[in-house]
Amino acid sequence: MIDLTAEQRHLAKRVHDYACRFPLTEEGDAQLLQSCYDYMDAFKRVMDSASKVQMDYICLQYPGYFRFAKWIERLAQGIADGVIEVPKEH
Length: 90
Known about the structure:
This is Arylsulfatase regulator. The chain is built from five helices and no strands. The chain has one domain. The protein has helices at 6-19, 26-34, 40-49, 52-61, 63-81. Helix 1 packs across helix 3 (40-49) and helix 1 (6-19) crosses helix 5. The protein is mainly alpha-helical. The mean pLDDT is 93.
C-alpha cells in the first residue's frame, strides 16, 4: 500500500465526494464545473504534496478525484490553446 498522509486522504476524499455528486453526463460535468472553485485548494494541496506514485494511487482509489483532475486538465489545455478566454482581471 502507498503511504498517504491523513491530510492527503482527507483532501482527496473531499474532492472525490464532491465530484461523485454529479452524474457522468454532460449536464453533470457542467454542474461539477460550475462550483469546482470551492475545491481547487484541496485539489492543489494534494497535487503539491503527492509523488507521481501517490497520485496514481489516489486516482485509482478516488475516481471522483481523477474525474476532477481530468476536467481541470481540460480547462488548462483550453486556456493554453486560446479556446477558453480568461478575463484580463484574472
